[in-house]
Amino acid sequence: MRGPLAPSHVPIAKSRSERFDDLVLDAVDRLKPRWGTQLASVEFAIEEVPPLSELGDGPGLLSGEPIPFGRSEPAVGKRPAVVIVYRRPLEARARDRDQLGALVHDTVVEQIAGLLGLPPESVDPGYEEDD
């Protein structure tokens, strides 16, 4: 027999990238009650890995810089501000789904804070930098 193992409407039927997309959307939704006006004009995107230009002399080996989890780009002209989250570095860092959700949330908070010019703690009082 060939076919799906689970009906398409149950969470187990989602791919890893779809589940990751949901974590990013959940992180944004948690911030919307407080920052909805500011976030209305921000686009959110997910990329598999950071571009080579962000890795310096290699993936953190020679440059001493950690692999980025995300980046933000301010609005320019008619182009809206963008927050980009990198899926693979976050998945590689997380021990389990709960930690992945926390890492995604912290990354989204950090990138939004950068766009707003605020410390992450003021964007989300529950933010803790313990890495």
What is the compact description of this entry?
The protein is α+β, with helices and mostly antiparallel strands. It contains 4 helices and 3 strands; from the N terminus they run H-E-E-E-H-H-H. Helix content is 42%, strand content 12%.
What does this structure look like?
It is a single chain. The protein has 131 residues and is of the alpha+beta class. Helix content is 42%, strand content 12%. The protein has a three-stranded mixed β-sheet with strand order 1-3-2. A hairpin with a 7-residue loop joins β2 and β3 (81-86). The N and C termini lie far apart (46 Å). The mean pLDDT is 87.
Helix and strand topology:
Elements (H helix, E strand, L loop, with lengths): L15 H24 L2 E6 L22 E4 L7 E6 H7 L3 H20 L3 H4 L8
Parallel strand pairs: 1-3
Antiparallel strand pairs: 2-3
List the main descriptive attributes of the protein structure presented here:
alpha+beta; 3 strands; 3-stranded mixed sheet; 131 residues; single chain; globular
Characterize the overall form. globular
Number of helical segments with 4 or more residues: 4
Biggest sheet character: 3 strands, mixed
Strand content: 5-15%
Average of pLDDT = 87
* Widest sheet, order of strands: 1-3-2
Element string (H = helix, E = strand): HEEEHHH
Level of helix content? 40-55%
Structure class: alpha+beta
Q: Report Rg.
A: 16 Å
- Enumerate the spans where pLDDT stays under 50 for 5 or more consecutive residues: none
State the end-to-end CA separation.
46 Å
The counted number of beta strands is 3
